[in-house]
Write a sequence for this structure.
């Protein structure tokens, strides 16, 4: 039996269904991500697990206990909020020690645990600072330490890195992953950032309109999107109607279907270069209509007939030579074209 | 640049002088032996203060005022803070009704309010007309807008629902979350609201005179009576009143700052230390 089970949970706000009989299961020690666009219900689900929102139907089981209607403090659930929710009147030490004090622990035991936790999140030396004296990243670490110190059965993280700049965000993602592996704590992370989800998760649940659209390991989700929604949301897939693709390749294969092609699996070359398409691939002609620099990746937007395809190539000096209106050939491996469920 | 600064300072000094002039004149009059046809008093004396504080009726009136104001402000703050806490957490939609309700005293002139209260409470099951309890009740209503607005503003500066949720998830009950997390963070604003209300009540005359008058002599009623006897003495009463309010303000602000900085243990007389840490 799974460690955390969400069983057909429904939640409505003023008659609007936000969670629609959603079901999912999380194993002990996993870091799973609820990924979805704003308003899809992922934060609501988190709040239902925490007991901050009452569910309208379904059950939540944690470690074989039915916690559906328990008070938040009796659930064994910790939570890191997007806005940190640090107590402004308390120092870092007092914030981190708060949960232990509520458990009735005394001086020495609290001090040892707090020291350990503050060291773990890399905030040694900041014990007597108030939240207002810390940077956003430091505040988020305090929030993490404060929630982890009470050793909850499951730790919920509601878009915790949203307010941070990209560099700190990436650093904290790695740190969170390390801390989670070290502590073995079960964590549920909510984000709308697909890159973040792919980076840190053991498994991803893609949520759409209050239901799980697809779940799986990051690589599965990324390389085998099950639906058009997942393909569009998870990455920068080229999503084409079957008829549109047939016009491109000249073969009647995909009528009535939707197709997804990852931009990085399309090979791009100047007309006539690098041989031809063979049985395992299609070769189509096009013109560069856009070039976007994405750091180590160059994204070319190529028009072929009436369709637009994005192609990602590693950013090196040769590829930079392709300018607007350059005629190119695109080679698409046949087994990399994914047929999507509608 | 320096000239400009000097000009600014001069302008500010002039403004303060203008604002404090009535108080300075009152103070001079309260320590003057005689001040009729001269620019400054002919002589200085503290005899009016001695006379004032030796008057048993003044001390009793001061005590009565303090009692009525303290009870009204204390009760009001307790009711408003708890009500706003509940409304913010559970019934946020009701907040605008609560706001409209507490603002009503602004719309009712003191005289009308007093007459209405006397009519209602002079007979029937709760005949408390002419007693301090009716005065406290009226005071309670008069200061509702001040305490409500001050408390609400403080609560808005902190994300109250989020803080309570965080405290609860860390194992705190609702009352503990309120006392350990919410109250310390809104206390500076609540203190200021309480102080403002106290000052308003301390100087309130219309309601006091109409509701209790000579039955329950407060400082205001005492001042009114002594003004007819001696201007010097009533000036001493006014200056004492201002000094008292000033001291109260100072204490409240200091307390507020301490709470804001989280020095609760200092207030309890023991310095917070990290036990066996580092």
């Amino acid at each position: 039996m799974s460690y955390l089970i969400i069983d057909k949970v429904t939640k409505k706000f003023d008659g609007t269904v936000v969670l629609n009989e959603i079901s999912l299961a999380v194993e002990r020690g996993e870091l799973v991500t609820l990924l979805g666009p704003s308003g899809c219900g992922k934060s609501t689900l988190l709040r239902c697990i925490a007991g901050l929102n009452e569910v309208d139907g379904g059950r939540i089981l944690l470690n074989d206990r039915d916690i559906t209607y328990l008070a938040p403090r009796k659930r064994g659930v910790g939570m890191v909020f997007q806005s940190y929710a640090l107590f402004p009147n308390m120092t870092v030490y007092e914030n981190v020690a708060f949960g232990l004090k509520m458990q009735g622990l005394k001086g020495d035991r609290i001090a040892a645990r707090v020291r350990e936790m503050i060291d773990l999140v890399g905030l040694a030396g900041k014990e007597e600072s108030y939240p207002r004296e810390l940077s956003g990243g430091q505040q988020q670490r305090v929030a993490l330490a404060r929630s982890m110190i009470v050793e909850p059965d499951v730790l919920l993280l509601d878009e915790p890195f949203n307010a941070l700049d990209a560099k700190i965000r990436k650093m904290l993602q790695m740190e969170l992953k390390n801390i989670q592996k070290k502590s073995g704590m079960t964590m549920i992370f909510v984000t709308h950032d697909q890159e973040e989800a792919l980076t840190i998760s053991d498994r991803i649940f893609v949520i759409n309109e209050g239901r799980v659209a697809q779940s799986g390991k990051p690589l599965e989700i990324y390389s085998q999107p099950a639906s058009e929604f997942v393909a569009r949301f998870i990455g920068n897939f080229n999503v084409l109607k079957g008829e549109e693709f047939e016009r491109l390749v000249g073969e009647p294969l995909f009528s009535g279907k939707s197709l997804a092609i990852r931009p990085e699996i399309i090979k791009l070359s100047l007309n006539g270069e690098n041989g031809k398409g063979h049985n395992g691939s299609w070769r189509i002609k096009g013109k560069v209509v856009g070039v976007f620099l994405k750091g180590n990746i160059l994204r070319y937007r190529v028009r072929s007939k009436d369709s637009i395809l994005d192609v990602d190539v590693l950013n090196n000096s040769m590829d930079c030579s392709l300018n607007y209106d350059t005629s190119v050939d695109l080679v698409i491996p046949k087994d990399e074209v994914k047929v999507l469920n509608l | 640049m320096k000239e400009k600064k000097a000009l600014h300072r001069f302008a500010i000094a002039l403004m303060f002088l203008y604002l404090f002039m009535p108080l300075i004149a009152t103070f001079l009059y309260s320590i003057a032996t005689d001040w009729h046809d001269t620019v400054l008093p002919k002589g200085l004396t503290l005899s009016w203060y001695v006379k004032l504080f030796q008057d048993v009726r003044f001390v009793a009136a001061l005590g009565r005022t303090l009692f009525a104001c303290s009870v009204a402000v204390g009760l009001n703050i307790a009711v408003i803070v708890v009500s706003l806490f509940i409304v913010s957490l559970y019934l946020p939609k009701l907040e605008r009704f609560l706001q409209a309700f507490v603002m009503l005293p602004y719309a009712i002139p003191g005289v009308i309010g007093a007459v209405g209260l006397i009519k209602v409470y002079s007979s029937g099951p709760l005949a408390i007309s002419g007693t301090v309890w009716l005065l406290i009740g009226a005071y309670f209503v008069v200061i509702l807008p001040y305490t409500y607005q001050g408390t609400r503003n403080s609560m808005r500066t902190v994300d109250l629902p989020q803080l309570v949720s965080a405290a609860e998830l860390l194992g705190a009950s609702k009352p503990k979350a309120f006392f350990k997390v919410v109250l310390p963070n809104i206390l500076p604003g609540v203190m200021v609201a309480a102080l403002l209300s106290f000052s308003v009540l301390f100087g309130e005359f219309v309601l006091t005179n109409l509701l209790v008058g000579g039955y329950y002599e407060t400082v205001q009623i005492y001042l009114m009576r002594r003004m007819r006897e001696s201007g010097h003495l009533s000036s001493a009463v006014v200056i004492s009143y201002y000094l008292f309010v000033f001291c109260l303000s100072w204490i409240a602000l200091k307390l507020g700052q301490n709470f804001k900085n989280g020095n609760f243990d200092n207030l309890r007389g023991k310095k917070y230390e990290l036990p066996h840490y580092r």
